[in-house]
Fold this protein.
Amino acid sequence: MSRTEQAARRSHGRQPEKSSGNRPISWWIRRLEGRGLPLMETTADEISRFNTESSRSVHRFCGQLGADPAVALELIRQVNRRMGPNSDTRVASVSHAAMMLGVSRIKRLPFHLKTVKLRSEDRKVQGYLRAASRAWHAAWMARVWAEYQGDPDPEEVFLATQLRLVGEYMMWMHGGEVMEEVVRLRASGDAHSEEARYLALGFPIEHLSRELARRWKLPPLVERSLDPAGAQDPRIYTILLAQRLAQQSERGWYHPGTVACLEAAAEHLGFAPDEMIASTHAMAAELAREPLVAGLPMAAALLPLLPADQEEEQAEVDDTSMERERGSVTGGESPEESGKSMEEAPPRRPAGTSGPSVKEQVARTAEAPTKEVEVVPGDGGPAPQGHHVGLAPQVELYEEAILAIRRGVRKGIDLNALIDHVMRGLQQGAGLNRVVFALLDGERRNLVGRYLVGADSDPHFSRFTIALNPPNLFSRLMAKPQSVWVGDDNRSRLWSLVPVDFQRLIRTDSFFAMSLFVAGKPVGLFYADRRDPELKLDPVAYQRFKAMVNLVSRTLGLMSQKQAVPPRRRTRL
């Protein structure tokens, strides 16, 4: 199928699948309420070997259990049960939980939690372990980076990075066939991983994680890291970068997406790019040697591959990676065991031999022949297998959002509830993949993203900011209530007015934008796009976008009038 045919096929959009997973978040919360995660067999073995009289400290022992999210989740829930529903106490680390509960509680975990083998043949267990491995990699990096930045509590950053995927963990173990549907969508090439989860679930999986974090009283940093607007906070940006890098590295350490993540991390931490690459590679190798994760798929197994070798293996090791031979990631199989001939196996650099420097490796990647690839906005590089899909407009959801806002005006509605209706109406109702409500900052020099949907796993886009100086397209929009649709018909005229930094941020070439005025004063701006340049915007979506923003303007105007007018005093007759 040609790229043109693919684009035409995708432009029609996709609705969430009518499957067992297409239920509201509230249904899943009820289903998952009393359930937990299984211990890894290595965790159970480590707990059984621990002796309180040994030379190991409790802190070190708890640190060694950090690769297993089941330990942290179970201990946090035990603390919450002991403290009662009205307690504000939040656990910041496994060591903190052990201090509150006692080590004896940890030693009893293998007796009341299920244990799973690291080389299980169960596809759901494989998916869970792969997610846990990726989170372990990300949490390790985030903790090291937090220590380098002088963070007051690096262990809190570690735990937040690990538990940020709590929704994905729970869906793999207790979500029925939903994650299998995600795998099917990814394997068939029908969707990029984020959209595949949305199509199978009916909502972003990060929203489920956020609701579980709130309900189970997980550390506050977990919940804050699941709010896309939180990326403006350096601690949360560290978490998002680490998670993105852990995911990208499974596509290859010299893949353009991985290199882009490393460059962003280097800028964030103040490292030279070469130093960042070298230290990150060393960290990946170090954590892969931890005995607790022996047998898990680790991105460090790809380090011996040279850039040219990795081009042959560039398949995103996401949920679809269960279709690959386990040895290709874990390094546990020889070519003969995996059924490949020695000629088919990618050549690897022998251990201990010298190879090209980091600079040479990156340069070799840059000089390699360019392949025809799809551009993934916010990804920093070529798309993995699969692609973004346009979300099909669901008119009934758009109309529901309009009615909810109008009812709210009569009955009273706060800003957060109002914007929630707007974002759902524009994303799911109008079929717009990414929607942002940006507010003017205190100095009125920038528009900063406050509410975002569709950016859950993209730390780059989550730092949505538009500079209004020097004058540009957006400063003109903020001069009066007006909108713009940048697209094929006017791109040659308007694109030069779009700030270069913003072009890099969105990584697409078509979008809607409209200024928001309340009582005649500029407040902010709504932005929306379909993420992928090949997913075209359309006039119907533009009309719905404008109508929704106009409704928001009128609603906020009425709300401000009600607040300004004092209640009428009753006169007694």
